[in-house]
Automatic annotation (TrEMBL):
Residues 145-173, 315-343 form the C3H1-type domain. It holds the Pfam family Aminotran_1_2. Residues 365-487 are annotated as: Disordered. The keyword Transferase applies. It comes from the Eukaryota. PANTHER family: FI04487P. One of its GO terms (biological process) is L-kynurenine catabolic process. It comes from Schistosoma bovis. This is Cysteine-S-conjugate beta-lyase. Residues 407-422, 455-471 have a biased composition (Low complexity). Keywords: Aminotransferase, Coiled coil, Lyase, Metal-binding, Pyridoxal phosphate, Repeat, Transferase, Zinc, Zinc-finger. Its cofactor is pyridoxal 5'-phosphate. A zinc finger (C3H1-type) spans 145-173, 315-343. GO terms for molecular function: kynurenine-oxoglutarate transaminase activity; lyase activity; pyridoxal phosphate binding; RNA binding; zinc ion binding.
Amino acid sequence: MIRHRARRAFLKKLKRKRKRQKLAKENIEREIEELSRLQFSPSYQAQQAKELELAALEAKERYNLNYNVTFYSERNEELWQEREREAQRQWEENNRQKILLKQREEEAQDVHEQQSPDLPPWHLPPPPVPIPTVIEQVPYGPTVSTVMEKCSFFRKTGACRYGFLCSRLHQYPSPYDDTIESFNIADDQDVGGLDEPIDNSCLVLQIPKMFTHYHLDLTKHTGSEDQDSGLEVDESQLLSDYHEFYHDVRMELESRWGKISVIRTCRNLADHLRGAVYVEFSRGPSAAWDAAEACNGRWFAGRQLTCTVVRLGGGWREAICGLYHRGKCPKGDLHCNFLHVFLNPGETSNDLQKTLWRHVGRLISPVDNNSHSDRGRSSTVKSLSNDSSSLTHRHHHHHDRRKTRRQSSSSISSHSRSSSPIGHHHSSRSKNNYKNCRLSEYHSHRKSKRNKHYSSGSRRSSLSRSPSTSSVHKKHKKHMKEKSHKRMKRVNHFLVLFSAQTVLIRHVSKENCTDMLNETRSAMILPAARILKQKPSIWVEINHAVAKYKPVNLGQGFPDILPKQHVLESLTMLGKPDVSPFLHQYTRSMGHPRLVNVLSKLYTSFLRCDRKLYGESGSLQVDSFGPDREIDPLNEVIITVGAYGSLFTAISALVNPDDEVIIMDPSFDCYAPMTVMAGGVPIYVPLRPQLDDGEELISDCWKLDIKELESKITSKTKVLLLNTPHNPLGKVFNREELESIADVCIRHNLVCISDEVYEWLVFPPNHHIKIASLPGMWSRTLTIGSAGKTFSVTGWKLGWTIGPANLIQAMQLHQQNTVYTCPTPLQEAVARSLEIELPLLNTHESYFNEMCALIEPKGRNMVKKLNEIGMIAVRPTGGYFLVADISKLHVPSNELDKNDSLSYDVKFNNWMMQNKGVSAIPMSVFYSTSNQHLGSKYLRFCFFKEDSTLNSAYEILKKW
């Protein structure tokens, strides 16, 4: 029964199938017949023709369009080039017309000057102008206030850059007294200043701006502060021009007023000394006065001369800048207030120096170097007891000695004095006007070796050995130990002004005494207090020692091998002429666009939170860097001047005064100074070794005590500084340690500055983990990297910081007012190098993997070699430094430095450099003062060196 039903069902199914096939066949035949009928119908053929025509029109339009675009673009290019050529021709024509016009104007001006009866020729001087006589030029007589100090520069050089606007007295010599003892002080005046001993000063003829030269005028018109900033001048030509001037002037002056003892011409660039000529005549001051009267108002080289007579109070030796002719004048020709003189014909700098130190041309006798320590400054103010009787006695005593010395050693003959009408007029004038002048107290500088200094640059007078003066000396010693305001109250308000040669005592009030003491203190300019607190860097001392002893340098952290070839090519290709000119100009202040873009691509994957450990983005904390997030290159990356620049900018941008910064000891030596310069307070937490018996000594044995860390945190703590891989230990912080640190930062709301410059130098099986990739840490972490450590180009000084936009913006505000931007070519070269490395990341061809494979065996070999000589070396897990325990090595104690203030590792390293020829870095310099004992038995070595360098060090150490 079942089989019969199945058969009937099968037959029905087969019948339906055949029926469908028949219907389909019929439909196909019907469609074919319909299609064949339509193909031959006129309407269908017309439709097909229309479609073909439209297609042809469309193809033609496309062809015409493409042709027009090509044609017009070529045409536009030709038109643009034609316009450029036309513009170039027009520019050249305009320049030619300007040159021709200027030449025609000059020719017309020359013709006008030569033919015009109203204007003098250009080479003739302008009409003479009335110039006052020598007597009318200087303020003789009682024209100064009651209390006024002499201008020290005018006293020494006869010129002052402030001229008549100077607040101090410019004391001119009297034309009625040809001796050196005339004083323009009335009876009721009290002039504070220091008169000179007779054998030091001299009266000379001064002719300002007599010698002119285009080099001197050029620097004047450029307004440059640098004496060498003008056009280059042939020194030999300048001296040749001066020597011609010298012979002409000297010949004329000697033919009229007798032999010249000294003639000097200034080559200073300041207005008050430029081209000034100083002349001292053998006949004495009378010849100077006669020459000044005769030459005043005369014409020379197209200008009218203004002559006067001035006194060089300290003689030629104090007037001439001795440092200039030794090439050591710090102020240069433009700013120095002393005479920079030309060398006369046949004279050398050594000849001039010898002349200044001998008694030639009325020059002063040599004194010790301390007498010139305060050139041009006010003498230091000190107090002295009142002893009027002793002072009166000494005054007459010195006055008699001066008269005797004048009679025996005066350079002016009695014949010239008696024959001069000026000397006759002086007798009556001195009797009327200068009868009651009080002469300043002075003493001989030859007794200065017995003096003691009251302060740097000042000298105490050696007064007569009398009972009164001995009491004065005792009081001075007593007052030296007390504060200045108390000292001023106990001396009856008498003031002593000391200089290199003289001393003046006068009565002043309490207020004036205190004011003058404060003025003297203010003359010493000190650096900022935050700078004075800084200690000298260990690297400066190491550099000096390495240069001195020439050891094998395993201390400083720089490789002595060339970087990768593509890194060098990335830089050298920027020097080709076909590169964009903008690559040699300023770039974006926060970083070159190409570099920040490639850094964002490189670090995005390393900063994302691990999905396997922390889940998807929805389950993470708000402040985390999610697995799907990208770094914003324009707002979350900043380029700095090396990792140093990143650290300084980050700390300065975040730390307020008195904010505390957590630093892990040992630490890189710049962390604490940068914190102090920002006004912060460094708080140190040490890493301590935790060793088990039989365990290999590796850098990861140094652990951070989290409880100790939390105990150091207060309400003022703001920043925690982290360094991984660690310098100097070579420690790589693992995930558990970083999570503990991150938990502390989150709970106490701290900002973490993570110094990760050695991130690519982590030896397997260790892995570098960025603390910013942990949950909740992205918004409070600044990650610092370095191109110098990445590509072994430490001299490029290029670094970067990656972090949240608000912190990066703070760094940008600081950097824009310090360095503004970093070198564009170096940023471009680093960007190109990273773009080459980016697709090779995590492959064997990557430079980062090659570098690790190259460095790790060097570190293991150094550990082995140091252990063989008796040191206990610590195997690093990252970076290119290792530390070694030196406590087991025997060093003769008598050969070590005896300075107890130095720690043992410093003494040992100094001894090793001098006696063994190998240099390292003492570990104590990486510790704070309170934890310095933890590093006193370790040295740090760098093993990223050429094999030849390391082998040289090993050969030396074998002979220990």
